[in-house]
Every structure is written in C-alpha cells, then in structure tokens.
Amino acid sequence: MGKIRVLDDQIANQIAAGEVVERPASVVKELIENSIDAGSTKIDIHIEEGGLSLIQVRDNGEGMDEEDVEKAFFRHATSKLKRGNDLFRIKTLGFRGEALPSIAAVSRLTVKTSPGHDGKGIELQLHGGSIINKQEIAYTKGTEITVRDLFYNTPARLKYMKSLQTELGHITDFVNRLSLAYPMISFTLTHNGRLILRTTGDSELRHVIGAIYGTSLAKNMISFSNESPDFKVSGLLSKPEFTRANKNHISIFVNGRYIKHYALTQAIIDGYKTLLMVHRYPITVLNIELDPSLIDVNVHPAKLEVRFSKEQELLKFVEFTVYQALYKESFIREPLKTKQDKPTIQKSIQENFDFSYSKQKQRENLTVNEKKLISTFFNLEDYLATPNQMSMEDEAHREQTNNKNEQSQPKEDTSLEPSNRLPLLEPLAQFMGTYIIAQNDDGLFLIDQHAAHERINYEKNLRLMNEEKKASQELLVPITFDFTPSEIEELIRQKDYFNEHGINLELFGKKTILIRSIPLWIPKGQEKIFLEKLIQMVLDKGVIDFYVLRQEMVATLSCKTSIKANQYLTKTEMEQLIEQLRNTENPFSCPHGRPIIIHFSNYEIEKMFKRVI
Length: 613
Ligand code: ADP
Ligand code: MG
What we know:
By secondary structure, this protein is an alpha+beta fold. The protein contains 22 helices and 24 strands. The termini are far apart. The structure holds adenosine-5'-diphosphate and magnesium ion.
C-alpha cells in the first residue's frame, strides 16, 4: 500500500494561505489588486481592528457572473492567463489564481458581485473555504468582498499578529502605494469608521501626494519623465530640503506593480548625488514602463520582487534621469513663502540656467557642460541617436551637425564641470561676521560663509577621493599606530594596496606602523581619525570602503576645517568664496543639508517698501 496521498483542496489552500496571506495587509493588497485588474475607477476600503475583525473592499469594476464567482475560489483559477505563454508577458497584477481561495481558507468571507447587466447579482458566503450559502441579490456593477475573522481557524498565525496599530500601518502603507501607482482611480480608506485616505482619481499624481503627505510637499515635488528604446520612466522627486530618515518613502512601480528593489532605490538616491544630507532620503515616486517580457514577476508569492533582464541599463537610466531632473532646478531658498504668486525673478534664475533637453537643443546647442553630464552616464552619440527622442526629419538634420558634435564630445569623462547654477554675484558687505551680503540685477542674496566653505571643501575632497590615482602628501611628522603581530603581518602584506591609495606605510619596531604620506583628500586636522578608520577597514574587509569614508567626511567636516562664523573676510576673500561656490556641483546646501544662500528678490523688497503692490 502506498503512503502518499494527494492533499484535499481545503488543506492545500490553507498551506497556500501561509504564503500569500501573511497578515491583514496581504489580504488588502490582493483584493485591491483584483479590483484594479477588473478595471475599477473607484475602490473603497473599510477596515476594522487592524483588519483582523473586518476587511471590506468594494469596487465598480467588471464584476463576475454566477458561474465565475464560484470558480474564482477554486485553486489556480484565474481569468488572467489564457495560454502558457502569457506567463512571460504579464499585464495584470494577478495571475496565480491563488489569492481568493487562500484568503477564503483562513476567514469567513462574503462576496457580492454583478457584471451589471440587469441589476441582479450573486452573493456567496464561505467559511474556512467551504461555500455555506449562495443567493441571488439586487446589485449594481462591481464587486464587494468582505473578509471577517481573519485567521480564526489558524490560531498559530493569529498569535503572530502584531498590535492593531502595526497591522493598520502595513495596510495604510499598501493603500498609499497603490493610490500612488493609480492616480486615475479614486481610493478611500477608513479604519473603525475614521477616514484615513481619500484620493480624487483625477489622474494627477501630485494630488495623490497631497492626499498622503500634505499639500506643502506636493507643491515641492519635481516631476520628471524620460524614455529610452527599452524603458519609459516618470514620476515625482521631492526637493532636497524635503527628506525623511528612511528609504520607505521611495515608491517604485513597474507596469503599475509596486515592487521593492534595493538597487533601483539606490539608483534614485545616487541620482540626487550630493544634494541629500547623509542618512536622509527623498520622497519619490518612480513609474517604470517596459515590455512585460523584460521582467519576471513570478519570483515571489506576493509578487513584491521582480527580476529585470536589462537591470544595469535600467539602473543607469534611472540615476541619470533623476540627476537630470534635479540638475535643471535652482534650489535657492526664498525667505518667506506666504503667498503662492512666486516672484518672477525666481523663474528668471531658472530660465538662465535651465537645461532644455528639447530635441532642438540636443541636436544643436548642447554645451560642453551638458555633454559632460550626459556622457557621465551614456555614450553621447548613442544617447543622441535614441530613436524615441528623434524623429525622421531630425535624423536628416543630425547628419549635418554630426561632425560638430563629434569634435567637441568629451571622450573620457570623469567629473562634472561646475554647475554654475548660481548667478554672478557682487559681494557688498559682511553681516554679523557670518553672512555675506551680495547683489545682482535680480535682488539681494545672503550667503552663509561657513556653510559655503564647507560645501567647497567637501566637493574638493570628494573629487580627490574619486580620482583614480590618489594624490598624496608627505607628512612633516609621521603618524604611528600600534597593532598586534597578526595585524602587522596583514598590513605589510597589503603595503602595495595602501601605496596605490596614497598611503606610504613602514614597519617601525615590532608592533608599530609608521605612516609618512597620506592621500590629499583626507580633511586637514582629521588625519589620524581617517587613517585609523581606513586601516581598520582593510583589516576587517580587505578593502577601503570609500562610501563609508564619504559619510564620515560629511560628519567630521566641521568648523575646524572651514571658515568659522565670526571671521572677518576682505572683499577679495568674499569674491573668491562666491566664485568657488559657483564652481561647485551643488551650491545650494552644505553637506549637512543646511541652506547656503537665500534670495530676496527685488520684487519682494519693493513690496515691503510698498513701491509695488
Ligand atoms: P488572480 O488575481 O491571480 O487571477 P485571484 O484568486 O485573486 O487570482 O482571483 C481569481 C479570479 O477571480 C480573477 O482571475 C478574476 O477573474 C476574479 N476576480 C477576483 N476579484 C475580482 C473583482 N474584484 N472583480 C472582478 N473579478 C474578480
Ligand atoms: Mg488576484
């Protein structure tokens, strides 16, 4: 007699539920995704007690007829995959046909649904996955699924639920993300009768941001979009002054599916370059559209992870697009933001320094700076030849200008030309020994001399750090460190590696290392601290981790290495400081994120004196 028997559906569904239905938020996610797949334009979600006593999702989608509604609860029953091949070109959020039977297996579930032909619908009730009642009801087009007493028959799972607040937090998070992914759908979310989120469904992503994060952030988001032959990306980026302490507010959607993707998240952060403070992260929405055959979504039961077949290209493209969008902006702060009618002068600064990436400009007027910016990421010629960005007639025109482009195209490109996003400024005086007062035709500017100097030093050190051949300097007095015999052995073994990085180290006695020269990028006065960190990294990991050192540099760059507040500057020194600041990549904020420059427009000043209304 064989011992193996095929599990009955009930147990199979409960096992599947273990994977698909991890917590109340997973139910919310699956139900909303079904509503989206059904073409709904309005989705209302009601939650009670963190979702453990009730989850109800009502939509106005295509609904189900009597035959389908029962089938929907069979395992692996789906209307979304017709042929095996479809699995490799998934266009819907669902496709596994697992959610409904899994949810039903661990709850008391009621579904009301109608395709909306005759005002009639079906109501089906299931307990622990078994149908206990089915009846015809009056119902308009759409579906409502109510899930009560989740995990009532799987006490082990119930025990693992966190506080109601935690569960509600997960639910809210999902609903927020889905509403960001679908600004064309109106969502409402209530918990114990209290409204938590309402979006209008007017297709404006900025309005969804407003509903979730408030209007002030919504107004301070920068929109972007870009296309390559393989990808289309678009979305919103928060200005660098609007950040959070974690990466949770970076939302990434691929063909309308919310995903978690470490490398893409990092690509967005990298696109901000030095605009962000250390340990601060932006609020962003990134929508990626690509041919479904270029991704594998069938990696994870909850479909939160996907694999891209052209991942490296995508990462580069996203980083570049983010950088380009931010690089166009001027982040000079205005003193008062009481009224919405922005002074026209702010615009004119932007216009002067705007990079217009219109086709016309791409072809004819790319400045050396713009070319450098583009070729940091791409082969310039390939980029310009991208078919999506160039029409047939453009092509002909390009033939003529091609030679010109080739001549001036930088071949090796390592660092950017200064951005010169600050206009020319004439220093007038110093205020409180701390702020430089400057002017130009557009108004008055206050510059924090200390913050400005910090920014200049930081970028200089960063440039030196990133140089391939690390320049070094001799120390007048060598620095010594003591180590254990095995550490000494390892350090001597790595002598050449240290040398490549500008560190000349010698054995001095039995347990002491003597350092005679150090890399130029190490901030003045911080030599010992940095060397100690760096040597420890080599001992621990075998390599120098420059990312960590960069963070360290921001943290330790302080008054010690920069011009202090309350320090007298001559007019020439002020001029030099402003010129150096104009030559930085980000002249708007110091490495810690504090503003460097504030602009009082002529308009605002004249308004204060009632010369204009
Ligand atoms: P999947 O979404 O992977 O197809 P589900 O178990 O989530 O699997 O749903 C099974 C089927 O039930 C779907 O394929 C769809 O045909 C139908 N269905 C589920 N929810 C809805 C809804 N809100 N509106 C219309 N049809 C639905
Ligand atoms: Mg589904």
